[in-house]
Amino acid sequence: MSYSERWQELFGPADGGPAMRLASAAPDSGSGGGGAGDLEHSHGPWTSASSTAGDLHTSTETSRSSLGPGHEGIETGAAGLSSVAALKSVLTSWDERLQAVRDECKQLKGTLLTVAKEMGETDTAIETSFKGVNGGAKADGQR
């Protein structure tokens, strides 16, 4: 199975709907790459992803901060039970995991916003550079 075929198997349309496609992948597996030339960019998805990462950062921190108060009094209420040590271990484990997720989301938010800004500036610069291009006239005077 070729790389392009594997990509389509993993990320292709499930029901004929939108699908992800490698920009360099040929429309059919026999023509050897090049793609259909329909790659388009919009900074909207980058900005949206950044916003989602920010929301996840906030909700993860909210959840993480409520873990401690949720476990208050367990040691006293369950004194003598062996499950107390296990509960403390689980609490510590989840606290560390949620901190890692929170920190990753914070980093992603900034990175995704940077990409949106850079891609938008690149698109604008390219569009501006084409505005001054006349393209010249053909020999027969028709375009």
How is this structure best summarized?
With 143 residues, the chain is mostly helical. It contains 4 helices and no strands.
Order of helices and strands: HHHH
Give the overall pLDDT as a whole number.
Answer: 75
Number of helices: 4
In percent, how much strand structure appears in the residues?
under 5%
Largest sheet: none
What does this molecule look like?
This protein is mainly α. It is built from four helices and no strands. The protein has helices at residues 3-11, 44-71, 74-77, 83-131. α2 (44-71) packs antiparallel against α4. The longest helix is centred in the C-terminal third of the chain and has 49 residues, at 83-131. It is elongated and about 85 Å long. The model has no long low-confidence stretch (mean pLDDT 75).
